[in-house]
Design a protein that fits this description.
The chain is an alpha/beta fold. It has seven helices and ten strands. The protein has a six-stranded mixed β-sheet with strand order 6-7-8-3-9-10, with helices on both faces. It has a four-stranded antiparallel β-sheet with strand order 2-1-4-5, covered by helices on one side. It is globular, with a radius of gyration of 17 Å. Keywords: ATP-binding, Nucleotide-binding, Transport.
Length: 228
């Protein structure tokens, strides 16, 4: 059974008097343990599809099932609870709190849980160790390189042990060397720790780290290929 099952998915936005159709009847299955790269020109619907899979947005029509839950049927409060338990998010610009240490940034998702302060700290330390930053827990974002900040963001994304990692241009703000380190880390989380990864990218070299590459164009899924 697929981890993510999408059927006849449509998304339309109202912009003033005009309706803008972004996705047109998408059908898609993503298996547990896949590493999927979503590619396509600007405006093709990549980020919209990513946000729908991650429960950050809701469809106009169609079905989205993730891990046996029909998330298109959930209200906003239910969806927030579902996201906190099932999805980790990694964004292009890290979205770290500048006044907090790396460890405190990683702990943020755990503030919504019943874990004690000591357990939150321990879980954050484990996540930072997994991304290779065990010795940087007390550093604030300004004291870290861009690649290190993205590693902190990934640690924050995995600290709740989600099944699904949603990554929107995770290397878009990094130099090539740092980008390759981050992509290697995502690949390791996928292969070694069983995380299912769905990543939007414009970079063909980044897409090569995935197990499947999906191409969107004008809201349609036009091609699915395996990397060379």
């Amino acid at each position: 059974m697929a981890l993510v099952g999408i059927r006849n998915l449509h998304k339309t936005y109202q912009r003033g008097p005009e309706k803008v159709d972004v996705l047109h009847g998408i059908d898609l299955d993503i298996e547990q343990g896949d590493f999927v790269a979503l590619m396509g020109p600007s405006g093709s619907g990549k980020t919209t599809l990513l946000n729908l899979i991650g429960g950050l947005d809701t469809p106009t029509a169609g079905e989205i099932e993730v891990g046996g839950t029909r998330i298109d049927r959930l209200g906003s409060g239910q969806l927030a609870h579902w996201r906190s338990n099932n999805v980790g998010f990694v964004f292009q610009f890290y979205n770290l709190m500048p006044t907090l240490s790396a460890q405190k940034n990683v702990e943020l998702p755990l503030l919504l849980t019943n874990l004690s302060a000591a357990q939150r700290r321990r879980n954050a330390e484990i996540a930072l160790q997994l991304v290779g930053l065990a010795d940087r827990g007390r550093h604030r974002p300004a004291e870290l390189s861009g690649g290190q900040q993205q590693r902190v963001a990934i640690a924050r994304a995995i600290v709740s042990d989600p099944t699904l990692l949603i990554c929107d241009e995770p290397t878009g703000d990094l130099d090539r060397h740092s980008a390759e380190e981050i992509l290697g880390l995502l690949q390791e989380l996928n292969r070694t720790h069983g995380k299912t990864v769905v990543m939007v990218t414009h970079d063909p070299k980044a897409a090569e780290y995935a197990t499947h590459i999906l191409h969107l164009d004008k809201g349609h899924l036009v091609e699915s290929v395996a990397p060379a």
